[in-house]
Specification:
The protein is an alpha/beta fold. It folds into three domains: 130 residues, Rossmann fold; 166 residues, P-loop containing nucleotide triphosphate hydrolases (Rossmann fold, 3-Layer(aba) Sandwich), CATH 3.40.50; 62 residues. The strands form six sheets. It has a five-stranded parallel β-sheet, with helices on both faces. It starts with a strand and ends in a 17-residue tail after the last helix.
Length: 494
């Protein structure tokens, strides 16, 4: 079973970056929904007297509108209401995946419906006439459950690759990666991991290995780009004494070191055609021959390869073997750059804060809103590795318990100020003309949505909540080319 863990890390300072489901002064917030005003006021008054933040809605439709505006951890609603019943409101909440518990208020005659509703996701039900002790007990249970969930959600979901390392991510993009990784831990097939430098390709490779049946075997990593062409064959397959000038003793190669384990070939796109031929033979025949030897050695090694190169382009240029590509690409993993998974920046930053608190013996417990804004809006050409370095820079400089804007690297602060100036300049121009300002915003919104979803039309329409026909019409109107954001494949869904 794939090992997921949660690291409890200090949450960022509350603000627009962390969605609070509490009301004023961080008090647990409840929405009471009932078309019977006297009962609604009675319930609200009781809960307010116990210190809860309470808001009211006179029917299910009004409740749905309030839930669309802000989150509530608990909704208490009557079953029988005009416009939208309690059961229909429950379905509405479940369909939109709100982090909201629903407790139904029901007459004795409708208890069967309430019990059935619990099978569909209702938290509990309260029978009329309402007894104060039962109501308060249910609310207390809902709050306890919510507190536990929020503690986990403020922590960083992590995938454990072993050796004390963790892959952190709660964005839609990384959840997809975790799903693929989980499938790959159950099989022994070759894997090709693709992504820019600094996106965590080796961490994902380790996660596959340390959560697979081969976890007790060695994990051996080789950076193919760092080894001279004259030595890479010997490095991978080993050599016999006297095989070449300077080979004064027999040497075992990485394929033998990785026996019954995993061999991670990083930067596979930088290998020569000659090396590719030998790698293909190992994948096909599960055997190799050391340099200068006539004996064949059986190979019980899982190969995980990684590259930041465009292999399809290299194949067309005759620089990468197509047959090797298909052997490696049985189950590919595409790691998105950090700029396309900005939802993970807060979790990653807090993860690194936790890490460096332990390494440097410091007690930084939060990030200032200004610093967090700078991290979220930076382009991150170096991806997660660059973010980690920026956080560690802050640890060296910062003398308080909060990571502040002034403790970030100079280049990051300059980029943040430049972005702010550009935004103000754009605003000053666009607000002079309403139509132009509206179109400017609309075009930028669509461009950013397409970038985030690698130019995929269907996915963009779904995630950005834009009707597909409307999205296609706007793309044509603003002369936007989704293929510019098409990631590795360059394909656009239609």
């Amino acid at each position: 079973m794939l090992s997921f863990s949660y690291s409890v890390i200090p949450p960022p300072a509350r603000g627009r970056n962390s969605l609070s489901v509490f009301g004023e002064n961080n008090v647990y917030s409840i929405l009471v929904v009932d078309d019977e005003e006297a009962l609604r006021k009675q319930v609200a008054s009781l809960l307010i007297s116990r210190g809860y933040h309470v808001e009211e809605a006179c029917d299910g439709m009004e409740a749905a509108q309030q839930l669309a505006q802000k989150p509530f951890p608990l909704v208490l609603c009557d079953v029988n209401m005009p416009q939208l019943t309690g059961l229909e409101l429950l379905k509405h909440i479940r369909d939109r995946e709100y982090s909201t518990a629903v407790a139904l208020i029901t007459a004795h005659a409708n208890i069967r419906d309430a019990v059935e509703a619990m099978k569909d996701g209702a938290f509990d039900y309260i029978e009329k006439p309402i007894k104060e002790n039962i109501l308060l007990e249910i609310v207390a249970k809902a709050k306890k459950a919510h507190d536990m969930i929020e503690k986990i959600s403020l922590s960083a979901p992590t995938l454990t690759p072993g050796e004390g390392r963790e892959c952190v991510g709660q964005s839609r993009e990384m959840k997809r990666v975790f799903q693929v990784v989980e499938k790959l831990t159950r099989v022994n097939t070759s894997v090709l991991i693709r992504g820019e430098n600094g996106t965590g390709k080796e961490l994902v490779a380790r996660a596959i290995h340390f959560n697979s049946p081969r976890k007790d075997g060695p994990f051996v990593g080789v950076n193919c780009a760092a080894i001279p062409e004259t030595l890479i064959e010997s490095e991978l397959f080993g050599h016999e004494k006297g095989a070449f000038t300077g080979a004064d003793q027999r040497q075992i190669g990485k394929f033998q070191y990785a026996a019954k384990g995993t061999l991670f070939l990083d930067e596979i796109g930088d290998t020569s055609q000659a090396t590719q031929v030998k790698l293909l033979r190992v994948l096909q025949e599960h055997a190799f021959t050391p340099v200068g030897s006539s004996r064949e050695i059986k190979s019980d090694v899982r190969i995980i390869a990684a590259t930041n190169r465009d292999l399809e382009k290299l194949i067309k240029e005759g620089k990468f073997r197509e047959d090797l590509y298909y052997r490696l690409n049985v189950m590919p993993i595409f790691l998105p750059p950090l700029r396309e998974r900005r939802d993970d920046i807060v979790s990653l930053a807090n993860h690194f804060i936790d890490k460096f608190n332990q390494e440097h013996g410091k007690s930084i417990i939060s990030i200032s809103p200004e610093a967090l804004s700078a991290l979220e809006h930076f382009h991150w050409p170096g991806n997660i590795r660059e973010l980690e370095n920026a956080i560690e820079h802050g640890f060296v400089v910062e003398s308080t318990s909060t990571l502040t804007f002034s403790s970030l690297p100079d280049y990051l602060r300059k980029a943040s100020r430049k972005t702010t100036v550009q935004a103000k300049s754009t605003l000053q121009v666009d607000v002079l003309d309403w139509e132009r300002g509206k179109e400017s915003f609309e075009r930028e919104f669509i461009v950013q949505a397409l970038k985030k979803n690698s130019g995929r039309i269907n996915l963009t329409a779904e995630i950005a909540n834009i009707p597909k026909n409307t999205l296609l019409r706007k793309i044509k109107k603003y002369n936007i080319n989704p293929r510019e954001f098409g990631g590795w494949e360059g394909n656009v869904e239609s």
